[in-house]
Amino acid sequence: KYTVWTVYINLPNDTVPGEGSAARNFAVIESPGNSQAQASSATPPAATPPARDRILDAAQQVVGELGAARMTLAGVAQAAKVSKGGLLYHFPSKESLLGALAQRYVDRMALCIEEAKSDLQEADLGRDLKACVIGILCADPGSRAMGMGAALMAAAANDPALLQVIRQRSAQCIAELAASKANFARAAIVMLAVDALMMRESLRISTFDDAQREQIVQELIRIADECYG
């Protein structure tokens, strides 16, 4: 007679020891006078997000609600459900945490633009510029703009030097625009309008209703097309 037991064993993942674990499971097969363990294909419990991502999510939320000046590492650790030591393992200082938020802002905006670009025709001359409008303003505008804009404001308020990664991304976009066949001035105005609307929404000072906002977005897309006419 054999009895099979599935045993879950927690092993450290990419987090500091004690701040998270990844479940591995083994089947223990018992027979009279003998038992052995072998790997099992049984599905382990769902893993929680890595501690670093949880910390960044929590920091973004805290900054959005309280502002950068009132953000503390202890408060972020509590919101992320990690220890203070666990947070310091990933981010030794408030500046390093805000710098990571700025990098996340750039990475996520770039991803949103690339996703929007994939839905546009490759032959469309205005594809890149329209992808900026659609990717930043059209996909889940409230939550993303609010969170990412808050992260940007956090970095700027604490230390302007932390915005270097954003400046570099902006300079890259301007260089690409200047090298394209677009009417540079008109295309730059579209980009400035996108930035302005996003920041107004981030600061919660935009008073456009949904219909007005949609009209603005559609007009920016139309102008983006005309930039290549």
Secondary structure blueprint with pairings:
Layout: E1 3-11, E2 22-31, E3 34-39, H1 51-66, H2 73-80, H3 84-90, H4 94-118, H5 127-137, H6 141-158, H7 164-179, H8 184-202, H9 210-226
Antiparallel strand pairs: 1-2, 2-3
Kindly describe this structure.
It is a single chain. The longest helix is centred in the middle third of the chain and has 25 residues. The protein has 9 helices and 3 strands, in the order βββααααααααα. 60% of the residues lie in helices and 11% in strands. It has a 3-stranded antiparallel β-sheet with strand order 1-2-3, with no helix packed on it. With 229 residues, the protein is mostly helical. The N terminus is likely disordered. It starts with a strand and ends with a helix.
From the structure above, extract its key features.
single chain; 229 residues; mainly alpha; three-stranded antiparallel beta sheet; 9 helices; 3 strands; disordered N terminus
Concise account of the structure shown:
This protein is mainly alpha-helical. It has 9 helices and 3 strands.
What integer value in Å does the Rg equal?
Answer: 24 Å
Number of helices: 9
**Which class do the helix and strand fractions yield?**
mainly alpha
Tell me the span between the first and last alpha carbons: 80 Å
Low-confidence stretches: 2-15, 20-31, 35-41
Q: Overall mean pLDDT score?
A: 78
Strands ordered across the widest β-sheet: 1-2-3
DSSP helix fraction: 55-70%
Shape estimate: elongated
- Provide the succession of SSEs: EEEHHHHHHHHH
Oligomer class: single chain
The total strand number stands at 3
Largest sheet: 3 strands, antiparallel
Beta content comes to: 5-15%
